[in-house]
Write a structure and sequence with these properties.
2 domains, 5 helices, elongated
């Protein structure tokens, strides 16, 4: 009971974690993260940076 309390995002998946600890980390991470808005913001800076760096670099030399 102390573990789920420390992890607020893992309180709903606690029942599933007890049954399958392997699919739990793969389900809550790739499923809710890509669908959630917080994931978009986290993936936005790194992805955008790479895209912007490659985009201006290709057309500039040409």
């Amino acid at each position: 009971m102390q573990r789920p309390a420390l992890h607020p995002p893992k309180p709903v998946q606690t029942p599933h974690n007890h049954k399958s600890p392997i699919p739990l980390p793969a389900s809550p991470a790739p499923a809710p993260i890509p669908n959630l808005t917080p994931s978009s913001i986290l993936s936005a800076p790194p992805f955008f940076h790479r895209s912007q760096t490659i985009t201006p670099t290709q057309p500039r030399p040409q």
